[in-house]
Amino acid sequence: MTKTVLSLLAVTLLTSYAIVTEAFAVKHTVNVQNYVFIPANLNVQVGDTIRWVWINGVHTTTSTTIPTGASSWDAPMTSSNPVYEYRVAVAGVYNYLCTPHSSSQIGSFTATMPAATLSVTPSNRDVTAGSGSTTFSVTSNSNWTVVSNAGWCTVTASGSGNGTIVANYLANTTTSQRVATITVSVAGLPNSVVTVTQAGATATLSVTPANRDVTSEAGTTNFSVTSNSNWTSSSNSEWCTVTPSGSGNGTINTNYQSNTSSSTRVATITVSVAGLPNSTVTVTQAGFIATLSVTPSNRNVTADAGNTTFTITSNSNWNAISNSDWVTVTASGSGNGVLNASYELNEGIESRVAVITVTVSGLPAEAVTVTQAGAETVLVVEPLNQNVSFQAGTTSFAILSNTSWAVTTSDLWVTSTADGSGNGAIVVEYEENTSPDFRIANLLISAGSENQLITITQEGAVSTNSNKLTGISVYPNPSKGIINISSDQIVKTTQLRLYDLKGNVLISNEITDLANYKLDASNLARGTYMLKLDQNTKTYVTRIVILD
Length: 548
Description:
The chain is mainly beta. The protein is about 5% helix and about 55% strand. The strands form twelve sheets. A five-stranded mixed beta sheet has the order 3-9-8-5-6, with no helix packed on it. A five-stranded mixed beta sheet has the order 11-18-17-13-15. It has a five-stranded mixed beta sheet with strand order 20-27-26-22-24, with no helix packed on it.
């Protein structure tokens, strides 16, 4: 029976503790980016929440060693899963890592039980002789109990966490002041003692009205005091001065200075009579009319990272925020100033816009924009041509780009890989060339506004040693279009053809003397061409380059 009662008590205490710690829980943010957790190490308390926020890359947050009884976790951190939260329920050391980057992307946090706290304010409440109630503020992270030592003063019996003790007191029918002691207790801590001091039945005090509303300009106002005693008055604000004292019924005159701020301000005036609770009234002074202007309405910036500014004209405190992670701004300021906006590199080819919102209390928000241009399209393909044999096979080209790209060709004997994006490779399959002539396939790579033509040059099926025309010299190569062709073989009639890389015949000549022939191709544009010489069944093919 005893064990059962103790078990139920333990469950009740743990449940109460969970409720209390929930009120004091803190949420800690850990950024997941660039192969690190920032911050990598944290000190937290049981009941706090760890919030992992994805910034870039592909990562996970995965527990490794954790305290006994704690729940493990394994969550992806990607653009599709940008946030993961874990509530700490057990004290101890928690270690975790990013699975893809387990050797370097490591984090930990140490959880401790929060220490019990207790504070009760104020230390005393002065009340009148009549019946009524008063309150004390309890600041604590624990369960607490309350007891009064006086039968004429009853109190809230208990509470949990921050709260209020309500003290109800009966009328004091005697002329003597009396004091009730209220004891507030938290397990494991010294008791906190406050008092209710109740005046005798003789003194009276009333101050009216409770508040005076005044304009932002300097001036005076007054309050009426109804009392049968001597009284004093004081203001808690230098900008508002008052009549320091009086006796019996009277008037408190208040002098207030001009308010140069846009914010409303309040002065509390405390009127005191010995043995009575203080009477407080207020002077609420309006602020002057606030102003706000932000120029220009937009800044156009390049794709590179950099900074730009906006001019703020105001007579008030202001705050600024950007709706985009790639733009950070001056968080706040006061009066006229400059709003600095730092922007990151735009790696995409599309322009983007960040909206910056500037606010002043009591005014509509002002919105300005930073419009960042997209990056120039990058398209580099290497090599621009691949020479292949007459047999069927595959070849590839390396591609460097910052956007999506497409591959098209009208040549049916080649087939390329699917379209892609960014850096990669283009793999091309080609069929067997059964013709004795070489052939050239053209493939067009398109990325945004950029295009790049690449070629595959496939030799003819007769390119065997027995069918190759040998002893041919072609020079200079590269040249400016005047090319010498000679042969150390017996001169025969030779058919000369010069092709562009699309397979078009640009020059076709029949040569009877190949011992020392000069080809004039100076009228052709700078580029690469294919030279083919045919003598009966023998063929010679080479690539020539013409410069400006």
